Amino acid sequence: MKKFLNIYKIEITTLSIIISLSLLNIYKATLLNKSYSSYFYKTIIFIFLSLVMGFIISRLKFKYIYKFRYYLYLINIILLIYPLLFSKSINHVKAWINLGFISFQPSEFTKFTCPLVLIDLIKKKKYVKSLIVFLIPTILILLEPDTGNVVILFLMYMYLLINKKNKKIIYLLSTIVLSLISIIVVLFIIKEKLFISLFNGSLYYRLKRIIDFKHNYQITSALIGIGNAKLFPISLSRIIVYIPEGVTDFIFSFSIYNIGIILTIVLLMSYLFFIFNLIYKKSKYKNYFKKKLYGSFLIIFIFQSLYNMLMNIGLVPIMGIPLPFFSYGGSNIISYIMMLFLINKKISSIEDKGNNNYKNNYHKVPVGKSCFGMD
């Protein structure tokens, strides 16, 4: 236990600060909307469940997770199909599976399942298979529609493709993607009725909202909230400015207004320490699979964190991209904790799986010292 705490001291410390400030905001958000009254207790349950899932992953040898990667991917695909067929629409989106007392968003778990399959396929130059593996969840998520997670999946896939030997593939995919985006944009602007008939009204509405983000009520309210922020936290018993989606997409602006500028700086520093520590640890690993897993997590985490913060201050269009470990949402925190435990596992040289030496090559990879002087 002591060794575990020493190795992951920076991650544990920074995440404890981030999650504690998140709980403070979610507790206070009841004053924004009475429907948020149960969110505080649900978040505590989500944190507990995420730690349970993380513990299970930590106890499993990576070779078993790797062995069942396609089954995990298939289960995720089935879970993505279910809400499209059976779930009720929430804010024009069919993305959640409701279990009665709790609901979860299957698209969040693609962060965990997709890299496990894609890294190996791309390593073996099976580009067509990797494209199919990427497109299936992407299309299903686009149909929900959830543009935020589509962008995140695309960035992760492009990162995994980046290799000196893959230049032609990257150029080809980039051309195809840009062509498709151009066609969609032209249809959206010129042929609105055709766009709606080909896709759906919900996607049209979301794209229109993204384009017109500067004239959005949520952005305006968020900026008013930030403008009324003080150096120190405001009273726990009152709210002056109402910020829509104050515990989810716009929790960062609500946080600045609620906990003050000083604690917001502490929050930002916690994110920076967390990110730089992971970047340093990634640089210490030589195992291809390990580096790509770390990179996938970092690409997703950095993009999601940065985009959410910029969105909250009105610099980028509104998309359903929560702030990792901070925004309310069980699926978000569980998927991130699962991925965090996964990338910190000891990983064998799985490239040798097909060789007779695979078992001999399965060895523990020592964790490098962190940039802050800890093991």
Layout of helices and strands, plus pairs?
Layout lengths: L1 H6 L1 H20 L10 H21 L2 H6 L1 H18 L10 E2 L4 E2 L5 H14 L3 H17 L3 H15 L5 H24 L1 H7 L2 H11 L5 H11 L23 H34 L3 H25 L17 H14 L14 H4 L14
Antiparallel strand pairs: 1-2
Structure characteristics:
375 residues; mainly alpha; 2 strands; 1% strand; globular; disordered C terminus
Any overview of this molecule?
- There is one protein chain.
- With 375 residues, the protein is mainly α.
- It has one domain.
- The protein contains 16 helices and 2 strands.
- It has a two-stranded antiparallel ribbon with strand order 1-2.
- Helix 6 packs parallel to helix 8.
- The two termini are 14 Å apart.
Rg over CA atoms, rounded to whole Å, is 21 Å
Tell me the strand percentage band.
under 5%
Order of helices and strands: HHHHHEEHHHHHHHHHHH
Shape: globular
- Which runs of at least 5 residues are low in confidence (pLDDT < 50)? 354-375
